[in-house]
Structures are given as structure tokens and as C-alpha cells.
Amino acid sequence: MFTPQGPSLRELAVQALSSVERGYDLLAPKFDHTPFRTPDSVLDAVERALSAMGPFDHGLDLCCGTGAGMGVLSAVCRESVTGVDISAGMLAVGREQEPPSGESGESAQSGPRVDWVRGDALALPFGSVFDLVVSFGAFGHFLPREFPELFGQVHSVLRPGGRFAFPLPAPAPPSSPWYWALLGFDGAMRVRNAVWRPPFVMYYRPFRLGDVRRELERAGFDVELYALPEFGRRRDGSPRCRMVVATRGDG
């Protein structure tokens, strides 16, 4: 898809007619060559913002996929970095890749311990052991009714004072071609899920800042927003991309 190394249209069609787990198992070997991987520009911006807040000891990449966000955690966490994902195929690719070692080129042994864990984001297999949880590009796999459960799970694996951070781009305006492209994509997915089983949950539009902030606060988080200046501002002065930082209180 878009590159010779990416999946073909036929491969994408087979993946789209599978479950989320099976679809990503099939996509995993070529995932990093698709537009679905979080761009390095976003990863770098989040890393810079988190570096100003850290360092942290133990980090979790929620729905880590092949591990694009694991490098961010390895740069800001001192003790351990854990990636959790429901797709065994995505985790296998992540394990096979060279462990992140940061910009300094130091060996993996000098950085945090790296672990890959197969698990469901709605039933995380951890206690309250993390100082930082991040996630990149995964929230479209959860329906709005699942946000309370999802954020409750993240709250449960953070230590008091721990932070849950993720980038959130501003929605495209109706004048943008991206607005209509995403609207069409979500519409096609709704039709697909209405006529085909198992469902493949992937919607771009329902994860909106107002709803997300409200559900995070209901889950017990204090929420702050940080503009990511690398992406500039829209005509109305609002940031094109923010980092949401939700902090678990001491209670």
C-alpha cells in the first residue's frame, strides 16, 4: 500500500474481512510500510514533550503494535519499557526488530529492560506498576461505549501520580479533503460491520477531545493539554495537534 514493500489491495481486502486480531496478525510483516504506522514526526514531538516532564521509571505502550512508540518510552524511561498488544503477529515483528537504543547509539543493555506482552487493553494483565502509559493511533479500535472501561484499565495500571499521554490531532474541517476521506472511511466500515462478521472496529472520527476529556475525568484523571508546536496552529489559533496528559491522582 503506497510503497512496493506495503500490502497489496488483495492483502488489505483479506485483512479487512477478518477480525481486528487476525487482520493485524496478517498485516504485521508489512505494517511499518503502511500509512497506519504513526509518523516519526509525531513520535519525535511526543518524545520531546515527555522528556521535559520526566524522567520516568516504568513505561507501558498501550496497543503497541510493532513498537513504533517503544522508542519514545525507551528515551524517557530508566528502568523498564513494556509493550502490550492483542495481536501476536504485531508483537512478533516488534520482538524481531532491533531493540530501541535511543539517539545516543548506546547498547540495549544500557537502556531500560524491554518486554512484549500479549494482552487485551480492556483487561490489562498488570498491577499498578507504571509511571507512564502512552498510546499512538490505537483508539479507533474502541467504540465510544468502551472508553470508560479502557480508561479505567489505564488508571488501574498507573501508580498514583502516573501519567497517561497520547497525541490527539485536531479534527479536519469540512473544507479539507481529509474530512470527507475519513467520513467516507468510517461510513464504509459501518456498512462492512453491518453485513459481515466478525466485526473489524476501526473508526477515525468518534475519538473527540471533549468526549475523551470527560471520560478521562470520570475515570479519576486530572487532564492537561499541551500543544505540540511542531505542527503549528489552525486559522482560529488552536493547535493542529495536542498531547493529552491525564494524571492519576493520589487517591
Please summarize what this structure is.
The chain is an alpha/beta fold. It has helices at residues 9-16, 20-27, 40-51, 70-76, 88-96, 147-157, 177-195, 209-218; strands at 56-62, 77-85, 113-118, 130-134, 158-169, 221-227, 241-248.
Task: Give structural attributes.
alpha/beta, globular, 2 domains, seven-stranded mixed sheet, SAM-dependent_MTases_sf, 8 helices, methyltransferase, Methyltransf_Superfamily, 251 residues
Question: Helices and strands in order, then pairings?
Answer:
Blueprint: H1 9-16, H2 20-27, H3 40-51, E1 56-62, H4 70-76, E2 77-85, H5 88-96, E3 113-118, E4 130-134, H6 147-157, E5 158-169, H7 177-195, H8 209-218, E6 221-227, E7 241-248
Major sheet summary line:
7 strands, mixed
Low-pLDDT stretches are 100-108
Class by SSE composition: alpha/beta
Secondary-structure arrangement, i.e. CATH architecture of the largest domain: 3-Layer(aba) Sandwich
Corresponding CATH superfamily of the largest domain:
Vaccinia Virus protein VP39
Roughly what percent helix? 25-40%
Q: Please, what is the average pLDDT?
A: 86
Rg from C-alpha positions?
Answer: 18 Å
Q: Looking at the structure, what is the overall shape?
A: globular
Alpha-carbon distance between the termini? 47 Å
Give the neighbour order of strands across the main sheet.
3-2-1-4-5-7-6
In terms of DSSP E residues, the strand content is: 15-25%
What is the count of helical runs? 8
**Oligomeric state of the chains?**
single chain
Tally of discrete structural domains = 2
Order of helices and strands: HHHEHEHEEHEHHEE
The CATH topology annotation of the largest domain reads as Rossmann fold
CATH level-1 class of the largest domain: Alpha Beta
Count of DSSP strands: 7
